[in-house]
Fold this protein.
Amino acid sequence: MNRNMFRCVVFVCAVVLWLGINFAQATPVHLSDRSTNSNPNTLPTYLQADVDFSVSGSTLTLTCTNNTNATGHAFDINEIWFNVSDKITNLTSDPGAQWNFTFNRDAIALSGYGSFDARFYDGRTSKTIKPTGANSTKTFTLTISGTGPFTVADFTDSLSKTSGGEVTAKIGANFINPTVGTQEAYGVTVPEPATICILGFGLSALLFRRK
């Protein structure tokens, strides 16, 4: 391989890496791929929310936005599950969030989707995340302990620990209809193929191929 070809390979890899990092930073995790309730009023398409992670040093900012349809299938959100990488030994929540928080690696069960590492929960109080208005988004701030540096991938790429018959998941949330008690379901997002990484490897392979 000549020098110009080598430079081209390095440049392409750098661009792909930059795209991957910024894509992860800028794109929230979307719910819901699946629903735990077979009730036709709790289909996955109705359980819509975004969970966005942002990391700065040892601070994690988690923002949950409720996107359920306020005029049709409106739900409050009162629980959020997520996972962390092996680099992280503990998370401490800012008490200003006014939600309960638990961190217990691979030990916080979500029915049908294995065990998660972390969970915010609020019961059924007025602090739930609403489908409309100023309370449709809630932001949580947490302090990260462990071996840094930490990135968004430490949260968005980590999966629940499952046993037989369970589905691996990335993020989970509990959706409740405050006026209809039977309309409640856990919605989760499941892993997707790492399209950007595959693209990067493909481009590199093409450039390395000798004519």
